[in-house]
C-alpha cells in the first residue's frame, strides 16, 4: 500500500485492502487502483469498471473489502470533509463496515497516516503508526 501511494505522488494514489478467512486463518490482499479523478492531485476516484472488477474478484475469492485507502499530496493525513461527503453522501455511509485509511505523502514519501471508521452516525478518526505498514527495513 505505502509503495503504491508513494509511487503515485505527485497525484493521490488509491486502492483497497481485502481479507479472506476468519480468525487466525485471515489472509490479506492489497489491490492498488488507478486514480480516475479528473483532478488527481487533490482527489481520488475509482473507475467504475476497476471497482466492479475488484468486487467480482473478491466475490470469487470469498474476500471482503475491509479498507479503502488513498493518499493526500503534501497535505495532512486527515479524513477531509470531501472524503466524508464521498464516503457518506447525505450522512449515510456507503460502506459502513469498511475503514478508510489516509496517508500523507510529502515529497514522495509517506509522512503520517490515519484511519476512519463509521460509528454512531459519523466517522471516528485515529492516527496510525506508519511502521505498521512497512515490512522492509529503511535504507
TrEMBL record:
Q: Which organism is it from?
A: Corallococcus exercitus
Specify the JAB domain's residue ranges.
1-105
Q: Which domain of life is it from?
A: Bacteria
Q: Does the keyword Cytoplasm apply?
A: no
Q: Which CDD domains match?
A: MPN_like
Record key words, sorted: Hydrolase, Metal-binding, Metalloprotease, Protease, Zinc
Q: Keyword Zinc, does the record have it?
A: yes
Listed under GO biological process in this entry are:
proteolysis
Checking InterPro entries in the record gives: JAB_dom_prok (IPR028090), VirAsm_ModProt (IPR051929)
What molecular function terms (GO) are annotated for this protein?
A: metalloexopeptidase activity; zinc ion binding
Report what the protein is called.
Answer: M67 family metallopeptidase
Amino acid at each position: 500500500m505505502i509503495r503504491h501511494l508513494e509511487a503515485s505522488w505527485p497525484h493521490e494514489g488509491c486502492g483497497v485492502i481485502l481479507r479472506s478467512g476468519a480468525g487466525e486463518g485471515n489472509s490479506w490482499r492489497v489491490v492498488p487502483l488507478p486514480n480516475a479523478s479528473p483532478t488527481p492531485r487533490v482527489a481520488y476516484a475509482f473507475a467504475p469498471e476497476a471497482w466492479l472488477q475488484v468486487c467480482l474478484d473478491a466475490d470469487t475469492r470469498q474476500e471482503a473489502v475491509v479498507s479503502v485507502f488513498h493518499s493526500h499530496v503534501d497535505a495532512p493525513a486527515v479524513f477531509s470533509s470531501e472524503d466524508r461527503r464521498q464516503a457518506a453522501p447525505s450522512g449515510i455511509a456507503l460502506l459502513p463496515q469498511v475503514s478508510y485509511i489516509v496517508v500523507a505523502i510529502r515529497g514522495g514519501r509517506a509522512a503520517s497516516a490515519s484511519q476512519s471508521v463509521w460509528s454512531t452516525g459519523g466517522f471516528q478518526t485515529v492516527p496510525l503508526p506508519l511502521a505498521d505498514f512497512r515490512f522492509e527495513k529503511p535504507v
